[in-house]
Amino acid sequence: MGSQKIARLNKVTAMLEGRSWTHRKLPLEVAKARVRLKDPGVEITQTLQCLNQGNGKEALAYFICDNFLTPIVVKWFTQKKSSQPDQNEDGELVKE
After folding, report:
1. Which superkingdom does the taxonomy of this entry point to (predicted)?
2. What is the distance between the alpha carbons of residues 91 and 84, in angstroms, rounded to a whole number?
3. Tens digit of pLDDT for each residue in 54-63?
4. Where are the chain's structural domains?
5. What's the pTM value of the predicted model, to 2 decimals?
6. pLDDT, tens digit (0-9, with 9 covering 90-100), for 33-92
7. What share of the chain is helix, strand, coil (3-state, %, to 5)?
């Protein structure tokens, strides 16, 4: 489909939904930012940079660290420590 047909379809859709529609081109950076807000996806820029430089092992290490190890470590540090004994308001140990 041509860009003019798409613009017309967007205009008709907007009119049917009762909202205003203006055709304007967004700068590329703004369009990318909007897409990232809707679907952030996986951040792999560091991995891609390493691949482009020919560092396959380093790229694999970044990918594994960012997508597997970091979430696990964050989960460990944010979990509530349940190994401490239960205490009541007076500081006395509660036995079950």
Report:
1. Bacteria
2. 13
3. 888 988 888 8
4. 42-75
5. 0.38
6. 877 777 766 677 788 888 888 888 988 888 898 888 888 888 888 886 655 556 666 666
7. 60, 0, 40
Output the six-digit token pair for 19: 């909202």
**87 SS3 class:** strand
The residue among 61, 31, 34, 35 whose CA lies nearest residue 49 is: 61
Residue length, the chain? 96
Place of tokens 């960012």: 66
d(Cα 16, Cα 4) in Å, to the nearest integer?
A: 18
Distances (CA, A) of 57 to 11, 46, 63: 49, 13, 10
Give dist(CA 58, CA 50) in Å, integer: 6
Token output for 67: 């997508």
Cα–Cα distance measured from residue 45 to residue 42, given in angstroms and rounded to the nearest whole number? 9
